[in-house]
Structures are given as structure tokens and as C-alpha cells.
Hints:
The protein has 56 residues and is mainly β. It has one domain (9-54): Rubrerythrin, domain 2 (Single Sheet). Helices cover 0% and strands 54% of the residues. The protein has no helices and four strands. The protein has a four-stranded antiparallel sheet, with no helix packed on it. It is elongated.
Amino acid sequence: MAKSKDVQVTIILECTSCVQNGYITKKNQHNTPIRSKLKKFCPYCYKHTIHREIKK
């Protein structure tokens, strides 16, 4: 039986314009080793902005 490694990692996305923590999601660490950027709706800015992954 194979070992169970934590491939899925929980990340926090932060808005780039207002610097507020907005979203918590998961990503596969083996497929995307670099920090991810997603365009999502920011409830603090009330517009769609780029959200970046931050350190925990």
C-alpha cells in the first residue's frame, strides 16, 4: 500500500488592491509549485481583482 502524502495544500488568497484576505482554497502542490494568481470578486473592493497566494 502506498504512503499517503499531503498533495493537496490549503492556501489563502489575498486581494492585490486592498490587501484583504478573501478566500481559502486548496491546490495540488505537485502540479503547481509556484504561487497562484486568480481573478476573483473582492467583497471589500466590490469589484473583480487579482488575488494572490500568501504564506501562512
